[in-house]
Design goal:
The protein has 229 residues and is an alpha/beta fold. The protein contains four helices and twelve strands; from the N terminus they run αβαβαββαββββββββ. It has a six-stranded mixed beta sheet with strand order 5-7-9-11-12-10, with helices on one face. Strands 1-2 form a two-stranded antiparallel ribbon. A two-stranded antiparallel sheet has the order 3-4. β11 and β12 form a beta hairpin.
């Protein structure tokens, strides 16, 4: 941006911040095109260029398009567009910071869950059953024994879940030497986040399973992660 222009706050009123600049800018469609030679008297241009289509810009930024007496529309490539870009950068940075903060909180929560499950597993191995977590061998879980289960030596990719209550979230930590894609056949509909995939071998994987009954059908909403040493 070169030069200067009068911009003193004392000269202005009805000051309103720009809104949704990022969303609106993402709707713009830069294109390449060739000027039609029969309209050279109007465009004063020829050959191939890149730019925007005025009618498309007008739908998104009406203030950036003008129509002259000849009836043809022009896009104003001026400081207005640059200021929309400045606000879009700010919108993007705010979104980036919010996403980072949310991911940091989710990672911290998962780490806390893993540490708690590890401690509960150790307590159980020492014969100190806490009533919250229990260690089992194999691929079957009875949640009457507690809402948290630790599975060792699963030797099966299909894990049976028994005595789950509607609206309750259960925790399952799996310690297996083999990489497997675990499924839960007792869930008529299993909704995984992220999408279900193979675990990392020789690590621990944690599954958070929420049971919801919808039209007498069992839905399981499953958040999971893998690779814990």
């Amino acid at each position: 941006i070169g030069g200067t222009c009068v911009s003193d706050r004392r000269l202005k009123q009805d000051i309103i911040p720009l809104r949704d600049s990022l969303t609106r800018l993402l709707q713009l469609r830069p294109v390449t095109y060739i000027w039609r030679p029969e309209f050279f008297d109007i465009s004063k241009r020829s050959g191939s260029e890149i730019g925007l289509i005025a009618q498309e810009v007008q739908e998104i930024f009406p203030d950036m398009v003008v129509e002259k007496k000849d009836g043809y529309k022009r896009v104003k490539y001026d400081i207005g567009l640059q200021l929309y870009m400045v606000q879009a950068f700010k919108d993007f940075y705010e979104l980036f910071e919010e996403t980072n903060d949310r991911q940091d909180r989710e990672i911290a929560s998962l780490k806390k869950d893993v540490e708690q499950l590890k401690q509960q597993a150790q307590n159980n191995l020492n014969g100190q059953h806490t009533g919250q977590g229990h260690v089992k061998i194999g691929a079957s879980i009875d949640f009457n024994e507690g809402n948290v289960s630790i599975l060792d030596n699963v030797q099966n990719s299909a894990i049976s879940l028994h005595n789950m209550k509607n609206g309750v979230t259960y925790k399952v930590i799996i310690r297996d030497t083999t990489s497997r894609t675990y499924t839960f056949p007792d869930c008529a509909k299993a909704h995984y986040k992220p999408a279900n995939a193979a675990t990392k071998e020789k690590t621990e994987s944690i599954y958070s399973i929420l049971k919801v009954e919808i039209d007498e059908e069992v839905h399981c909403y499953i958040d999971w992660s893998t690779g814990y040493p």
